[in-house]
Amino acid sequence: MISFNLLKRIVDLILSLVLIILTFPVQIVIALAILIIIKENPIFSQTRALTLAKYPFTMFKFRTIKTTQFEKQSHNESEKRFLIPNRGIKFGRFTEWIRRSGLDELPQLYNVLLGHMSLIGPRPLMVYDLNILKSQFPVQNDLRGKISSKPGITGIWQIYGNRALGAENLIALDLLYEESKS
To answer: How far is CA 174 from CA 56, 72, 163, 167, 178, in A?
Structure first.
């Protein structure tokens, strides 16, 4: 009998390949628009993981802000920013639309194809957020470390979670996924 993990990997491979092919023209248009608007490489990479020690990988996304804006934000961040994305950053209309529509996530299909991610699973966090999780929420960090699923492009937390409820909500929904996946 075929195992759940093998079946999920086969489905991830097939669906990611189909979605890459179907969205490739859109990806080209988005990449060219970003290149023209932001004048930087349209794809950026970032280290993400479930915990600081579990499943670290390089995640790809479409760039929606200039590198200088990101660096400026990084130097001004406080630990109150945990799980709250890009507070105080001004986006252009096009890049804001890309973020709201989720099209900035399309390059993550390549992460799925490469086996770094799954289509559905717990969301990988930035190293910055993982450091906060480990230092301020050690119990939740330990619970998240018990998750055996690969990180996903989407999951229960992305659909039903509330960022305002913080780490407890994130971990509870990640654990719910881990317990009920089938």
So the answer is: 17, 31, 13, 10, 6
What residues contact 57, with CB distance under 8 A and at least 6 apart?
A: 47, 48, 49, 111, 116, 117, 124, 151
What count of other Cβ atoms lies within 10 Å of the Cβ of residue 82?
Answer: 19
CA dist 17 → 90, 109, 113, 116, 177 (Å): 34, 8, 7, 14, 24
* Rounded Cα gap, residues 122 and 150, in angstroms: 7
For the stretch 10-50, pLDDT in tens is 999 999 999 999 999 999 999 999 999 999 999 999 999 99
pTM to 2 decimals? 0.86
Token pair, residue 156, equals 């229960």
Q: CA–CA separation, 126 vs 128, rounded Å?
A: 5
